[in-house]
Write a structure and sequence with these properties.
Belongs to the AfsR/DnrI/RedD regulatory family. With about 1000 residues, this protein is mostly helical.
């Protein structure tokens, strides 16, 4: 076999000798993985683009894919072909050359074999795993989860086979570990019970069952599976060989770990003994069901039920409020049914009806009728009859759906509560009744799991539990697995955890797959248009739910609601007034009616479904463009104000404010990029410092690239500075832009032409990294003469000049001249309370301390810097300081701490997409492995660093470091030719980056020793 490919671990390829070869950067590895998953089959171009770039592919995605294919072909070095066809691309290898395919074949072969053969085949299959599947390809998380699920099942199957072979004692410890790793999977628990029992530990097996039973009941509201109960019963009977049932992997309980089972609806029964009131005109009662019986399980509201029980014990009127579809009615039925309530549904009452009509509805629910007249001949009205009938009896009434008759409902509730001291009322409404003494309980959406949640965590989240429950009813074959988990979470998140919307979506599983439902949620009102036809019409479709609330609004409220859809995420009363013209009273009205939600900070937000409906209404009015422009203009001014505070003591406060409105800022930028280039230029300029400080530079890089494409070769004269900002953002991003050198050259000329203080001083720091250091002291003087006027004004600018001068001295190998400049810069930054500049100065002084032989001081400086970058929450700076800290810890021979620091840096860099910092961390890990004598691991880290290192001048340091490491490894194994080649490449890279003088000296010494003839070859 010429080549083998591995994805059951990090993505790896091995040549015919079994040597691992470098694949390339993250995109190339992801591409290889996608092709390997479909080995010897053509994968459509669209599927590859989706797999590599997700929902937001870059402009020219097809060209980008071709570029990645070319890199992959070079990496494969002829070991295998990547063939193009009309259908896409094909990796021309035998599928059995890919460990994942071989794993699946071995697992399939094991099925149906005897226990010994099964154990042997599964041993071989599981031996192919080297770590987490696709560990370094986060884009393919869905595929990875599918293989992880298959691996766990194979581990379970192997344990079952070994139990059949009598290996009970040996399996107790590994099965305990499996149970701890996957606490919600029942099959490992059944296997562990068998292993304990077979080892003579019957009491422990029974105790495990009891713990499992309690855990399932407390956490999931379900009972142990029939298979687990069968093992339990066999142990109780003392059967010689208790055998677990098949627990087939296509059983939803097995594939999910543990799916919450149906919970019994509680609260049906007969009406309380209201009896017949004495005297003429009294009401007569007949027995009625207290609350409607429910046909589905009740999921995810245990905390609400407990709290409502407390509130009803403390007060006499509790109102459940929330938007349509949040499950207020069902929650009231569950809570009230447990307390013996009588259910009164006002949904059928016409809007605007008065107290009398509502009182008759209450009488009907209680089974009361008007039975006579008073002696005077006067007939009592329904409300008065209720007062007489209820008297002081302890009664709980549920007033459901009060919003369209809110005034009459409030009047009736106040009258009855005042006349009947034993009465309590539990109401549901999209707004409060507004009565003195009313307790309001907002019914929130069901919690949705994080996209990073494990399978077990996700299926225990209430929103997902509801989707599973209703989806299984619609399609009995449906189960949540690792393969479809991401789509299920996406559906629940897009629907804001709204129970009715989730139920409507789950019902579509009769005809659509989970992925198809998730992909169609952009048109959610059309998708979720088929509900229970026996329900009230306003609960049959998602549109009807929202329209019911919309129709209850007045014209001014409707106008403001649709205009508010220009906001993305949260917004304030001030921004709503400035952009949409709405006063705060109207906002409060919309919040009271559950069209808006108020956050704990006093801001407002719309649920996504309400947002989608309001956006439709706005588009229909023709005023959307005007509102979008007002929105973008408002947030431009906000960003300008914030930018003025980012270089001083208020830095963290204003960064937090920008974070809070990040979604609105980026929405404004996206709109401007599509419709108003000058506005987009202004936004990119004022947001650049925020992106830089927070370490979210990819946002600016992508926006900058789009802007440069729109501008072409002619930047507007009045936006010279903003144009240079855009170029710097692109240059410092991860995109490969062929025309970047010409863009940088043009920007240099533009910068030279600016004869005023810069509007965006952070540009100077960004440009220093983009353009690289000038060549020598004379060029520095000329540079300062051309651009010195750009630095005047704010003390921060002067500190930046000092820092720039310090770095130039450091770059030229003059640490003794570096420190005075950097000390002055540090003092100024500290006096301003500015953390980013302080961090950079501390980092540079740490480099000086390192160069001058004082690693302990260097570590102290970096520890202080690490505290500051974590306060800034800058992923890029945190990752950088962590790997530098690892270098110092290595010098101090604190290797375990150094390795931990490198790993933390790599993790931070990977999550933030920081290629150069990730490569730096790999270099550090390579050094750590080499010092520990693990040559193979060290070489893999160095190769990974070279593959991930973007082609920038400042990454020459990393290339030099990785090549030096490879040279040392080659020298130590006696490969003089390879060592010389790597050392020569290291020297070339070191010349491009002159700041790391100690490493340059090490490279020079190594080259000298390698170029000298061997001792036994020298003439006597």
């Amino acid at each position: 076999m010429r080549m083998r490919c591995g994805i059951l671990g990090a993505v790896t390829i091995w040549d015919e000798r079994g040597d691992a070869i470098s694949v390339g950067g993250p995109r190339v590895r992801a591409l290889l993985a996608l092709l390997a998953l479909n080995a010897d089959k053509a994968v459509p171009v669209e599927a590859l683009i989706d797999g590599l770039y997700g929902d937001e592919p870059p402009a020219g995605a097809g060209n980008a894919l071709q570029s990645q294919v070319s890199r992959l072909r070079r990496a494969l070095k002829g070991l295998a072909e990547v063939e193009a066809s009309g259908a896409g691309y094909r990796l021309a290898v035998d599928p059995q050359a890919v460990d994942a395919h071989r794993f699946l074949r071995l697992v399939a072969e094991a099925a149906g074999r005897d226990a010994a053969a099964k154990a042997r085949l599964l041993d071989e299959a599981l031996g192919l795993w080297r770590g987490r599947a696709l560990a370094d390809a986060p884009e393919l998380r869905g595929h990875a989860l599918r293989f992880e699920e298959a691996r766990i099942t194979a581990v379970e199957d192997r344990a079952a086979a070994r139990l059949e072979l009598g290996g009970h004692r040996d399996l107790v410890s590994p099965l305990r570990e499996l149970v701890e790793a996957h606490p919600l999977r029942e099959r490992p628990r059944a296997l562990l019970m068998r292993a304990l029992y077979g080892s003579g530990r019957q009491s422990e097996a029974l105790e495990l069952y009891e713990r499992t039973r309690r855990m399932l009941a407390d956490e999931l509201g379900t009972d142990p599976s029939a298979d687990l109960a069968e093992v339990h019963l066999a142990i109780l009977r003392g059967e010689p060989e208790p055998v677990a049932g098949p627990m087939a992997t296509d059983d939803p309980r097995a594939s999910l770990g543990a799916v919450p089972g149906p919970e019994t609806a509680i609260g049906t029964g007969t009406a309380p003994g209201t009896g017949t009131a004495a005297g003429p005109g009294a009401a007569e009662a007949s027995g009625r069901a207290r609350v409607p019986a429910q046909f589905t399980s009740f999921v995810g509201r245990d905390d609400d039920l407990a709290r409502i029980a407390v509130l009803l014990g403390e007060g006499r009127l509790v109102t459940l409020t929330g938007p349509g579809g949040t499950g207020k009615t069902r929650l009231a039925i569950e809570a009230g049914g447990r307390a013996g309530a009588t259910f009164v549904d006002f949904a059928a009452v016409s809007a605007g009806e008065g107290e009398t009509v509502l009182a008759r509805a209450v009488m009907g629910a209680l089974g009361l009728r008007e039975a006579g007249v008073l002696p005077s001949g006067e007939r009592l009205g329904p409300a008065a009859l209720l007062e007489t009938a209820l008297g002081d009896r302890p009664v709980l009434l549920i007033f459901d759906n009060c919003e369209h008759v809110i005034g009459a409902a409030a009047t009736l509730a106040r009258r009855l509560l005042g006349a009947c001291p034993g009465l309590r009322v539990l109401a549901t409404s999209r707004e409060a009744l507004g009565i003195t003494g009313e307790t309001i309980w907002p019914v929130r959406q069901l919690p949705v799991p994080s996209v990073r949640a494990t399978l077990a965590e996700a299926v225990s989240a209430p929103a997902v539990r509801l989707f599973i429950d209703r989806g299984s009813a619609a399609n009995p074959a449906f189960a949540v697995t690792a393969a479809n988990l991401e789509d299920v979470v996406r559906i629940c998140e897009a629907l804001d955890g709204q129970p009715l919307a989730i139920e409507l979506a789950a019902a579509r599983l009769r005809a659509l797959s989970v992925t198809e439902i998730a992909d169609r949620l952009d048109d959610r009102f059309r998708l979720l248009s088929r509900g229970d036809r026996t329900q009230n019409p306003r609960h049959q479709t998602l549109r009807a739910v929202v329209e019911w609330s919309w129709d209850l609004l007045g014209p001014d409220e409707q106008r403001l609601a649709r205009r508010l859809s220009v906001f993305t995420g949260e917004f304030t009363a001030v921004s709503a007034r400035e952009v949409c013209g709405g006063d705060e009273d109207l906002l409060l009205d919309l919040a009271d009616r559950s069209l808006l939600q108020r956050t704990p900070s006093g801001r407002y937000r719309m649920l996504q479904t309400i947002y989608a409906y309001c956006a439709e209404q706005l588009a229909a009015t023709g005023e959307e463009r005007e509102l979008r422009r007002a929105h973008a203009a408002y947030f431009l001014e906000f960003a300008r104000e914030a930018d003025g505070h980012l270089r001083g003591a208020e830095q963290l406060t204003w960064l937090e404010r920008l974070d809070t409105d990040q979604e609105n800022l980026h929405a404004a930028l996206r709109w401007a990029l599509d419709t108003d280039v000058p506005l987009a230029l202004r936004l990119i300029g004022v947001l650049s410092a925020y992106w830089w400080l927070r370490g979210i530079r990819s946002e600016g890089s992508e926006a900058g690239l789009r802007l440069l494409e729109a501008l072409g070769d002619a930047p507007p004269p009045e936006f010279d500075e903003e144009y240079v900002v855009a170029v710097a953002l692109v240059a410092l991003g991860n995109q490969e832009v062929p025309e970047l050198p010409s863009l940088v050259e043009r920007s240099e000329r533009l910068l030279d032409g600016i004869r005023r203080p810069l509007r965006q001083p952070f540009l100077l720091a960004m440009w220093a990294l983009t353009a690289g250091p000038p060549g020598g002291a004379e060029e520095v003087d000329r540079l300062m003469e051309r651009r010195g006027h750009q630095f005047v004004g704010h003390p921060w600018n002067q500190a930046l000049v000092e820092m720039g001068a310090a770095y130039l001295h450091l770059f030229e190998g003059r640490p003794e001249l570096t420190e005075p400049h950097m000390d002055r810069a540090l003092a100024t930054f500290r006096s301003l309370g500015e953390r980013w500049g302080t961090t950079q100065a501390l980092d540079a002084l740490a480099s000086v301390a390192h160069e001058t032989g004082d690693p302990a001081r260097a570590l102290d400086l970096l520890e202080e810097a690490l505290v500051l970058v974590r306060e800034l929450r800058s992923a890029s700076d945190t990752a950088e300081i962590l790997y530098r800290r690892g270098d110092i810890l290595t010098v101090l021979d604190r290797r375990d701490e150094a390795r931990a620091s490198y790993l933390a840096s790599a993790d931070e860099a990977r999550r933030a997409g920081l290629q150069n910092t990730f490569a730096a961390a790999q270099c550090g890990l390579g050094d750590a492995a080499r010092l520990e004598g693990d040559a193979a691991a060290a070489a893999a880290h160095y190769e990974r660093a070279l593959a991930d290192c973007p082609p920038r001048w400042y990454t020459a340091e990393l290339r030099a470091r990785a090549r030096l490491g490879l040279a040392l490894l080659a020298r130590d194994r006696g490969d003089r030719t390879a060592a010389l080649a790597h050392a020569t490449a290291a020297a070339e890279a070191a010349r491009a980056y002159r700041m790391d003088h100690s490493r340059t000296a090490e490279i020079t010494a190594l080259l000298s020793s390698l170029e000298a003839p061997p001792v036994d070859a020298r003439p006597e």
